[in-house]
Amino acid sequence: MKSYNSFQVAQKQILEAVRILNLNKATRNLLIWPQREFKFTLPVKMDDGSVKVFHAWRIQYSTARGPAKGGIRFYPDERSDTIRALACWMTCKTALLDLPLGGGKGGIACNPRDMSERELENMSRAYIRATAPLLGIDKDVPAPDMYTNPQIMAWMLDEYETIVQRHHPGMITDKPLQIGGSEGRRDATARGGVITVREACKALQVEPATFAIQGFGNAGQRAALLHKEMLGGGKLVGVCDSRGGIYNPDGFDVKDLVTYKLTKGTVKGYPGAKVVDRDAILELDVDVLYPAAMENAITEKNASRIKARMICELANGPTTPEADKILNAKGAHIIPDILASSGGVTVSYFEMVQDSYSYFWEEKEVHAQLDKKLTKAYHTVIEAIREKKVDPRMAATVVAVARVAEACELRGWV
Ligand code: GLU
């Protein structure tokens, strides 16, 4: 099987944006590399008394526009190039949304499914002991990502505050509400994605009647619920997670399916559904496809079989460059990851703001501010598509890179 190096993909995207913007060589050389990278080994006490050593990373891709910002993943096959790419895309996301933040990403190579709650806590705290000097609301602010969640953020916050001996809630986001989290953060990634689908449907006059979701974690589940709620209808006809896929042409009862997933840990075995191959979900004939799993799901192998009219990328980097070309040539409307999945980091920013002045907004205020930001970003990208005559992903990248480059120039770096 062909393996994809996400960082090479990210670098190529930046290079192309630099070319389109006609930026100078120093800016190019600066933007294609992470500003700072850290690699750690974490010794962690396991329940059986043994000590296991985990490999971990934190990469601060750019701090030109503000503190580094981005999640921490727990993933068995983690490697530095993937984190580099994800940190680069975070830089683009925050810039595209015009947030006063840079971009970063972290990860631990581990399989959280094989670990007890206590082992996960020990490992999360070990990660913060290693990274504490790098973190802070004015330096680098982590958040959840694949297989991490608010409970893990709570342990990390506690470890950090124990080390620095003061409260510092804004050093991490998507915390539980009781310790400085924000209303509306949990469903923000999905909500942001659905807002962009709403705008795209209006612009293209598409009816989002049927949809499919690849990946049924936090973002996928929330998108399933919000698609119907925010777009006034739509049938979820196919879903898959890492264990299998299910299909129902009449549409699933979404609430019931989410409850099933939360109790069983998978959608596999859901009563009354046709069992299908995981990958078949991507190829369903639907109006909207939400890839919400992980990078490199849509490749040159399956892109030609994708029938969705609109693709809303809730995952980071789900489409390879070859697949992108195929989909664009077919006329599919791609809402690229750095736009479609930016709702999470946008509300993370709102959380940092609320933590800073220790005054918390109502949920409807968060929703309204998120809607404003995402709607504006969607139309900025559409304008850039027209102006630069490029595909949606390059349009979004060009807008982001121009903003990061301007900050680098203003700082006198280039
Ligand atoms: N992990 C999320 C992302 O990839 C959220 C990052 C954040 O809130 O900092 O966008």
C-alpha geometry: globular
Please write the CATH class name of the largest domain: Alpha Beta
Walk across the major sheet and give the strand order. Answer: 10-9-8-7-11-12-13
Instruction: Kindly identify the CATH topology of the largest domain.
Output: Rossmann fold
Kindly report the average pLDDT value.
97
| CATH architecture assignment of the largest domain | 3-Layer(aba) Sandwich
Question: For the CA atoms, what is the radius of gyration?
Answer: 20 Å
Structure, explained:
The chain is an alpha/beta fold. Helix content is 45%, strand content 16%. The protein has 13 helices and 13 strands. The chain has a 7-stranded mixed beta sheet, with helices on both faces. Strand 7 (210-214), helix 7 and strand 8 form a beta-alpha-beta unit. The longest helix has 26 residues, at 363-388. The model has no long low-confidence stretch (mean pLDDT 97). The chain binds glutamic acid. Glutamic acid (GLU) binds at residues 69-71, 143, 145, 173, 316, 341, 344-345, 348.
